[in-house]
């Protein structure tokens, strides 16, 4: 087992990882920017190293500084959290070259899944159902027209290097195709330095359903069921739940089994999430994330398994603590992402939190790095906390969520709490009846 883990992140996820390390008796080092000297993870860590000024590229993305911090403190492993360097293959390779363990998959697996064309090809080869579309990059209009006619309109043009929902264009008919292909490719080139794009069928009313997987790196793979993350705004998840209100046990076992086998065959190591669009009873792979997700706690709530413990165990060579048959699903869980944003316009609302009171009681978990008197720096993303609620079934979970939202107090800044108080009283949400467009349509109506 590791003696000392360096946590290369900030905010709630740095604290989340720190807690797991403490439970496992592992010493912790955190790195932080000058803007985060007062952060909770810095206060609670055994050691901390300031690695640079506020901008992420000079601190949380500064590989040389982070490697130096490992060497100074004698850390033998790095947990990257999510975002920042968590899906940076070069970072994983550099750590390996310094004999420091990256708590995550190999650089090669990160590289494959970071290239969406390659990821889709790999998924298909491993028997995962994919969205019908081009086999690789599409460059000329004639080929694009042929493929689009074959799969049928509408189609979507996506950037191979895409991320965060950028570089996508929908073509409803052949008349839109030429412009869509051109603009997607130009935008991709400008945003990612890679103009390769591919075509796939555009699904009109899908849900976003993702499967949590784990590999031990030695040919064993398991799945921890799915999460439904269909409630999104600008492709950013807002509310996540497990299990999905749309799946039955047979579908869960089928798609979970396919994913677990794929992970085993790939020889994958650590945590991963295989993301699908789901429509009319069919699953369509869109991408794989090779890291821990923001929404992992809903899976922890219904399985009772600490996924960060598992990541650390697997990375240290100790293997998974569970076999597939040990993983049981119990009840229902919902996560609300509480952002420091105006709940109507979603503009960021940094500033000082004058009062912070979190709800408690059975089935309530709050993962947050903030506290009363904390000043939210303007440099990073606006997530200030996650409320995760568990109940024996979805009805009990929703009742408990409504009560917890009423108890939650964040004064001094604007937050998205009022949005969740609205959603929890909405009939479609109560019925689990929503797709990936539902939230934006709802917000447009409210305006
Ligand atoms: P990114 O890595 O940029 O987040 P994804 O491939 O995960 O890109 O897609 C992000 C979102 O774009 C999906 O959650 C979905 O809302 C939409 N999307 C992507 N592909 C399709 C498709 N084939 N049909 C309909 N919507 C899609």
From TrEMBL:
Under Enzyme Commission nomenclature, its number is 6.3.4.14
User: Locate the Biotin carboxylation domain: which residues?
Assistant: 1-444
Name its GO BP terms in alphabetical order: fatty acid biosynthetic process; malonyl-CoA biosynthetic process
**Which pathway or pathways does this protein act in?**
Lipid metabolism; malonyl-CoA biosynthesis; malonyl-CoA from acetyl-CoA: step 1/1
The cross-references to SUPFAM superfamilies, in alphabetical order and at most eight, read: Glutathione synthetase ATP-binding domain-like, PreATP-grasp domain, Rudiment single hybrid motif
Q: Which InterPro entries match?
A: ACC_Biotin_Carboxylase, Acetyl_CoA_COase_biotin_COase, ATP-grasp, ATP_grasp_subdomain_1, BC-like_N, Biotin_carboxylation_dom, Biotin_COase_C, CPAse_ATP-bd
Could you tell me one molecular function GO term of this UniProt entry? ATP binding
Which keywords, in A-to-Z order, does the entry hold? ATP-binding, Biotin, Fatty acid biosynthesis, Fatty acid metabolism, Ligase, Lipid biosynthesis, Lipid metabolism, Magnesium, Metal-binding, Nucleotide-binding
Its EC top class is ligase
Which SMART domains does this UniProt record tie to the protein? Biotin_carb_C (SM00878)
Span of domain ATP-grasp: 120-316
Reactions the enzyme catalyzes: N(6)-biotinyl-L-lysyl-[protein] + hydrogencarbonate + ATP = N(6)-carboxybiotinyl-L-lysyl-[protein] + ADP + phosphate + H(+)
Cross-referenced PANTHER family: BIOTIN CARBOXYLASE, CHLOROPLASTIC, PYRUVATE CARBOXYLASE SUBUNIT A
Q: How does it assemble?
A: Acetyl-CoA carboxylase is a heterohexamer of biotin carboxyl carrier protein, biotin carboxylase and the two subunits of carboxyl transferase in a 2:2 complex.
Per its database record, what is this protein's job? Answer: This protein is a component of the acetyl coenzyme A carboxylase complex; first, biotin carboxylase catalyzes the carboxylation of the carrier protein and then the transcarboxylase transfers the carboxyl group to form malonyl-CoA.
Name of the protein in question: Biotin carboxylase
Q: Which organism is it from?
A: Mesorhizobium neociceri
What gene is behind this protein? accC
């Amino acid at each position: 087992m590791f003696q000392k883990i360096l946590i290369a992140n900030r905010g709630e996820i740095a604290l989340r990882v720190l807690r797991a390390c403490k439970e496992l008796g592992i010493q912790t080092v955190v790195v932080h920017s000058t803007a985060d000297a007062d952060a909770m993870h810095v206060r609670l860590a055994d050691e901390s190293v300031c690695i640079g000024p506020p901008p992420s590229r000079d601190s949380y993305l500064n590989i040389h500084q982070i490697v130096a911090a490992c060497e100074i403190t004698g850390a033998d492993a790095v947990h990257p959290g999510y975002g920042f360097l968590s899906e940076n293959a070069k970072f994983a390779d550099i750590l390996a070259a310094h004999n420091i363990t990256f708590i995550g998959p190999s650089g090669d697996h990160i590289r494959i899944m970071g290239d969406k064309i390659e990821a889709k090809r790999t998924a298909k080869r491993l028997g995962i159902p994919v969205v019908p579309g081009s086999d690789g990059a599409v460059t000329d209009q004639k080929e694009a027209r042929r493929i689009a006619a074959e799969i049928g309109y509408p189609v979507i043009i996506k950037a191979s290097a895409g991320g965060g929902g950028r570089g996508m264009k929908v073509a409803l008919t052949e008349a839109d195709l030429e412009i869509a292909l051109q603009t997607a490719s130009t935008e991709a080139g400008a945003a990612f330095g890679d103009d390769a794009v591919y075509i796939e069928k555009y699904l009109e009313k899908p849900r976003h359903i993702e499967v949590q997987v784990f590999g031990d790196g030695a040919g064993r793979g398991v799945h921890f069921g799915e999460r439904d993350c269909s409630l999104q705004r600008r492709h950013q998840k807002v509310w996540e739940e497990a299990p999905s209100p749309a799946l039955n046990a047979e579908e869960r076992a089928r798609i979970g089994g396919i994913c677990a086998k794929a992970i085993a065959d790939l020889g994958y190591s650590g945590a991963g999430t295989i993301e699908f669009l789901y429509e009319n009873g069919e699953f369509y792979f869109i991408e794989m994330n090779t890291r821990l997700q923001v929404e992992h706690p809903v899976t922890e709530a219904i399985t009772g398994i600490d996924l960060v413990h598992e990541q650390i165990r697997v990375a240290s060579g100790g293997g998974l603590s569970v076999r597939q048959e040990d993983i049981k699903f119990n009840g229902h869980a919902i996560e609300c992402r509480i952002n420091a944003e105006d709940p109507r316009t979603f503009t960021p609302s940094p500033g000082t939190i004058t009062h912070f009171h979190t709800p408690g009681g059975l089935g309530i978990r709050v993962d947050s790095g903030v506290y009363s008197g904390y000043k939210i720096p303007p440099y990073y993303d606006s997530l200030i906390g996650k409320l995760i609620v568990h109940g024996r079934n979805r009805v009990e979970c929703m009742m408990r969520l409504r009560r917890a939202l009423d108890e939650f107090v964040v004064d001094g800044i604007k937050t998205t709490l009022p949005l969740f108080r609205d959603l929890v009283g909405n009939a479609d949400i109560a019925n689990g009846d929503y797709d990936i467009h539902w939230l934006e349509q709802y917000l447009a109506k409210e305006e």
